[in-house]
Amino acid sequence: MLRRCSISLTCALWLIGAQAKLTERRTKWDEIATSACSHELATYPWKSSEGRHDVLCKYDIALGSWVLCSTEYYITEANGRDKNMVFQWIESLCAAKWDSDNPVNLDAVLSAAESNVGMMPNKGQKIDHIVRANEDNIKLWVIALFGPVDNLDKSTLFAVLINGYWLAVLLTAAISKFFRALFRSTQPRKSGIAWIKGHITLPPLVQRHAAHFGRSVFVGLIPTRLETLVIAGYICLHVTVMCVEYHFDPLSLVSSLKIQHLLFTADRAGILAFAHLPFLVLSGGRNQLITKITGIKLKTMIGFHKWAGRFMFVDVLIHALGYYLHSLEEHYLKYAWDSPVWQSGRAGVCACGILIFFSFYFFRRRFYELFLFLHYLMAVIFIYECWRHCGNVGWMEWIYVSIGIWVLEFVLRARRIIKFGFPRATIELSGDEFIKITVPKLNSEWQSKPGQYVYLYFLRATIFWQSHPFSILHTTSDPSSQNLTFVITAKNGVTKKLRDMVKDAGTETIRIALEGPFGSSLPLWDYDSVLLLGGGTGIASMISASMLSLQVDKTRKPIWKVVWSLKSKDLLTLYGREISELIEKGIDVQVFLTSQTKEVSFTEIEMTEQSKTNDKLLLNDYRIPVAGYKRPDINSMIEEFMRLDGSLLVIGCGPPAFVDSIRSLTCEKIIENPLKVVDYKEDYQTW
Ligand SMILES: Cc1cc2nc3c(=O)[nH]c(=O)nc-3n(C[C@H](O)[C@H](O)[C@H](O)COP(=O)(O)OP(=O)(O)OC[C@H]3O[C@@H](n4cnc5c(N)ncnc54)[C@H](O)[C@@H]3O)c2cc1C
User: Fold this and answer.
1) Ligand 1 atom closest to Cα of 467?
2) Domains of the chain
3) Secondary structure (3-state) at 627
4) Considering only CA atoms, which residue is closest to atom 25 of ligand 1?
5) 468 Cα: distance to centroid of ligand 1 (angstroms)
6) How wide is the angle at C-alpha 263 spanned by C-alphas 261 and 268, nearest 5°?
7) Of all atoms in ligand 1, which is nearest to the CA of residue 496?
């Protein structure tokens, strides 16, 4: 089915492509030679009454000189092979001026010119025989005519280079993923690798990675140093290709230097902007395939998406401003303003501006669904306006590829949703804040691994179009279990609506659609010890991994410890069954309740008919030992695991500040113990 879809997509794009212009080489030496000769020869004093614009076509002596000049330059200087290319240009320029009943044979004109060429007459005399144009002047004209078209070709080349850069990033990630999997647990580690991990790949550029940074409107996420390097590489490349390889005409034969600067930078920026589209569409998608092949997390791809998008917007602005100023300089603004190209250009700039404005975090955080809707809508409008803008100009491949990627992504997503089916899920409220969703698996082939997540759609009239990511909780050690479970914290959007829906009845069933699984699984079995540090609802993947570990052969099973820091007893109640099963089956689980002291919790528990004996909370039927009523000492826990022999994997998931502190502590340990294999995986994503 997929193959059929892509074939029909290719056919559709091919048919559309037949209407619109693709990229073509703009530096055509036959055209440059012909134009340079015509510019030069048009200034000569021909013995003819024809005006400057007609003389070369209509006065046979001037025509012969032009044909001679153009073919000689084309063949000797530009290494052209086929003089008919030159003839075609001359014919296209002169056809309207020639008598259609007496076609001109340019081959014969050239032969006659070659055998009758004479000396240039003295100054002041009219020219009445074939002459050779001044070679030095021709070269100057060539420089003037070459610059603009060469700029278009170089811009196309640089556009390919920018896409090549992103492709190289993806390829490098894929190769590195392959080798990491091969040598993950090879002991001892080469100290250079520890240095790279501890100083470059893991730590954030500054301060923090998961928690947002900044104030008021300018709030964002700080990339890791490795992500920063990739982004910096892209920015350097982008700035470089915007600044180099311009061939200006210093004599300003065709246009002034100011106009050349405006035009060249505007053209360069416009082509680069266009070329960003495929990568933007690719990196803005859900990208399970990319994650699978390269190991790059969705949040990292979205980070790249944001930076590429920002620079594309800058390109769009430079292009628009450049042409606006050019039109003022050349006095054609009032003629161009209402033309389709300018109308579509203006609409494209507006769409892109709106898209960028509503992507700011202050808006996205409060109105995520509106942000998403506007983002898609403006992206569609922008691509459509680009199509209108350049349909007759060229470079349409970038548009086709972008649409192709987008359509393919939707097809793959729809396929995943249909494959899972549309079961009725049970929604239960736990306390005021938490919702447990149990989804029966209709398709037994559907499998997921710890650390993966899905997008859930709740098929109710007011919310069915929204899809939200939630981590999968594996509630049993049986991977073929027929249910999927999700534990959700009620926020202010769809999750609040769900809570309100079940508030009265306590439980409700609702038809859902599910897209996934997304994300990569955790490489748990490649290490000698695994320390899982979870905070709040971030425990889901830790429980899933621990459940799976119950299945693993004892000889292969790493030393295993789960540490869970949480505020709310409601949450503990929700996971009570799984936690007590893990403890019963010998998994070391340490629970830290941070929001209450021992005494307070005792009173509260009594009041809620839960009892606490010997530091064990009795929640419903489950007895959960509590390791402490304080925050866990993450540092000493990691240190304890560092003292164990063999390789260590630290996994963090929970509130942003919590995972940030685990990340930085693990980095410290990696640097301090360069020979020990220590890795860090974060099962937390935000964008
Ligand atoms: C990979 C991943 C796994 C997650 N797993 C869980 C989980 O197991 N349990 C849990 O309670 N939460 C989880 N979350 C968070 C959860 O997706 C959001 O809390 C939920 O989407 C909020 O929905 P809302 O409409 O009520 O949000 P709102 O109240 O409108 O917004 C709350 C916050 O959630 C963000 N948000 C809203 N919609 C989305 C969306 N579609 N995609 C990404 N972010 C969004 C907003 O930017 C805002 O910061 C996970 C998030 C990610 C990225």
Assistant:
1) 41
2) 29-133 (no CATH), 147-416 (no CATH), 424-518 (2.40.30.10), 524-682 (3.40.50.80)
3) strand
4) 493
5) 6
6) 95
7) 26
